[in-house]
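Quick check before the chapter quiz. The format below is the same one you will see on the exam, so make sure you can read both the input and the output lines.
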Amino acid sequence: MSETGHKAQEEHSIIICADDYGLSPGVCDAIENLIERGRVTATSAMTVMPEWPKRARTLKALTKDYPVEVGLHLTLTGPWRLTAFCGTVPESLHALSHRALTRRLETVPIRVEIRAQLDAFEDAWGQGPDYIDGHQHIHCLPVICDELLREVKSRYGTRPWIRNCAAPLHEWNRYNSSPAKEAYLSVIGRRMAAKARALGFRMNDSFRGLYPFTTRRSYESLFHKFLAKPAATALLHCHPGWVDSSLCERDALTWPREREFAWFASAACQELLEQTGIKPSCFPGAFATDTF
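Here is the expected output.
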């Protein structure tokens, strides 16, 4: 392929990452279905959940036939913890964020829990994660960010890439449909991105997929905005899933997951990707370039 052709291919690719793998059997099933369809090229695992060690083998088998990267979805909100040390860390996102931003978050419990979640990933997967991100984007918060990047660099060097949630001011609301949340993530994510970059980590250069989960707009209309103006390393995060009893017990986000799954599984989704020339892909330089 010519240099010009290779560049064009990179500019028209996007990483489609399904968050929350392991949250429930229905979420795992839906994500695996989309991997097989070639619509999802990355999925982030919640290693604190009981489904993770049960389902990792099935997911691992899929990666032999379908190009997909698997990362750690660091989870510190909610009641799911792997260590007793983390019992002193607030469960609510609001309280956790407040303590982190005011530098009143204890470092030792965070450090011990991060290590435990990475251990759980390695134990079930047989190797380290392809990338790192955080449930509810908590990996961008001060203290958590510092401890996470230090531990990842110590274990794996700079091999895993890191999810960058920050967007330049002039790009706010260009690709997403939740400007307030995008502004907040850009503020807290800017320091994390700078620190990760200084340590030599690779990151996505565009972050998409934010929208109010309560909106009644069709996901198709949102997806058009998420695809606007392809970037060299664009990342679209999503939360597809099938609602089951476990999900209802563990998370308030239910029907939007089925709405997202229905869109990604549809023929209309594939037609739109083909019409726009955008290909779901893995991170540039990973083991695969695209799924089509």
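If your answer matched, good. Residues 236 and 270 are 15 Å apart (CA to CA).
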